[in-house]
């Protein structure tokens, strides 16, 4: 297909069959190429369009801006333990000083002292705080996380994700997204 748009342009918001985004952070987006392929495979419905089209010798197709899955995908109830999800749970801020930059993750009870790599023992920490705490317990370092580390629910991660809207939000997406900057910190 010949298109007058760049390969990376015209992202498509992907909604579950219940018209909720599959995820907020990162926002569930597909390339327009993947969305059109899913349309032809009868996996999605087009909900909204861009004012752009792609052309092939026998077909003109308006680019979708929002699609919904035809089959409901049951959201996971227990999010995976990943570095990204730890940062998301901790709202991308160091749990010792609040800095938003140069994040790593810190074992509250160091692994060398029997600490495990679990939701309840890992927090986001900026590199300077992580280095300062080193191999010490919170009591030894006199550094205590701002919140108790916990295993978040998917709902809590989605709520936190809505605190960080992406740089690009097409107007056709707004009826399906709920960016709430008034949430509890």
Uncertain stretches of 5 or more adjacent residues: 1-7, 180-185
Secondary-structure element string: EEEHEEHEEHHH
Please state the structural category: alpha+beta
- Please state the overall shape, judged from the principal axes of the Cα atoms: elongated
Quaternary class: single chain
Head-to-tail CA distance between termini:
47 Å
Rg, alpha carbons: 21 Å
Structural summary, described in words:
The N terminus and C terminus are likely disordered. The chain has 185 residues and is of the alpha+beta class. β4 and β5 form a beta hairpin. The chain contains 5 helices and 7 strands, in the order βββαββαββααα. 19% of the residues lie in helices and 23% in strands. InterPro entries: HNH (IPR002711), HNH_nuc (IPR003615), NA-targeting_endonuclease (IPR052892).
Write a compact overview of the structure shown:
The protein has 5 helices and 7 strands, in the order E-E-E-H-E-E-H-E-E-H-H-H. The protein has helices spanning 32-40, 83-89, 127-133, 138-141, 154-161; strands spanning 2-3, 12-15, 29-30, 44-56, 59-69, 103-107, 122-126.
SSE layout:
Blueprint: E1 2-3, E2 12-15, E3 29-30, H1 32-40, E4 44-56, E5 59-69, H2 83-89, E6 103-107, E7 122-126, H3 127-133, H4 138-141, H5 154-161
Parallel strand pairs: 2-5
Antiparallel strand pairs: 1-4, 2-3, 4-5, 6-7
């Amino acid at each position: 297909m010949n298109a007058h748009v760049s390969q990376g342009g015209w992202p498509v918001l992907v909604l579950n069959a219940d018209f909720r985004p599959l995820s907020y952070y990162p926002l569930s987006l597909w390339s327009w190429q993947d969305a059109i392929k899913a349309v032809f495979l009868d996996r999605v419905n087009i909900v909204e369009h861009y004012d752009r089209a792609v052309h092939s010798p026998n077909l003109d197709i308006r680019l979708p801006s929002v699609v919904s899955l035809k089959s409901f995908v049951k959201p996971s109830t227990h999010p995976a333990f990943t570095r990204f999800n730890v940062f998301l749970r901790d709202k991308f801020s160091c749990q010792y000083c609040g800095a938003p930059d140069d994040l790593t993750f810190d074992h509250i009870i160091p692994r060398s002292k029997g600490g495990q790599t679990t939701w309840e023992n890992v927090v986001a920490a900026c590199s300077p705080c992580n280095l300062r705490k080193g191999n010490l317990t919170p009591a030894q370092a006199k550094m205590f996380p701002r919140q108790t580390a916990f295993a978040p629910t998917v709902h809590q991660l989605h709520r936190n994700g809505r605190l960080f809207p992406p740089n690009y939000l097409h107007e056709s997406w707004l009826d399906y997204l709920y960016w709430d900057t008034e949430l509890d910190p």
